[in-house]
Amino acid sequence: MGVPPKTEDFVKEAATSDMFEIASSKLAVERGDDATKAFAQQMVTDHQKTTDELKALVSGGKVKATLPNAMTSDQQSMLDKLNGLQGTTSTSNIIRTRKPPMKTPSISSSAMANPELKAWAASTRPALEHHLEMAKELNK
Fold first, then answer.
1. Tell me, what CATH number does 113's domain have?
2. Is residue 52 in a domain?
3. What is the pLDDT of residues 80-94, one digit of tens each?
4. What letters, b where the CB count within 10 A reaches 16 and e where it falls short, cover 4-30?
5. Domain count of the chain?
6. Residue among 126, 108, 130 nearest 117 (CA)
């Protein structure tokens, strides 16, 4: 199972993942075909919810971590690539073929140190699994 992520690392990864998912999905809402737009809007809604919940845990002092102000350079590069694509088909194909991240492999780890963060991570799993199923359906 490996070593559980440090709270700070997990928060950073979860927060930057949400940032990327929201930004790339908003782009897909603007440029995608109808099926992609529906998927992307669900992604925006769900990831905004998890962002708000994570911010509340940190600002409320239940999780000791610093929230990042920006996504990672790799995520920004992918977003820049998506922004540079022209046309509905190109954007829809990129959004459809990339798999939604499952945050981290240890998201449901019973060894996660912070109980509040552990509970939050467990509560996000069903939505993340649903995103994966939605993405698979788009690719049929």
1. 1.20.1260
2. yes
3. 888 887 665 555 565
4. bbebeebbbbbbbbbbbbbbbbebbbe
5. 1
6. 108
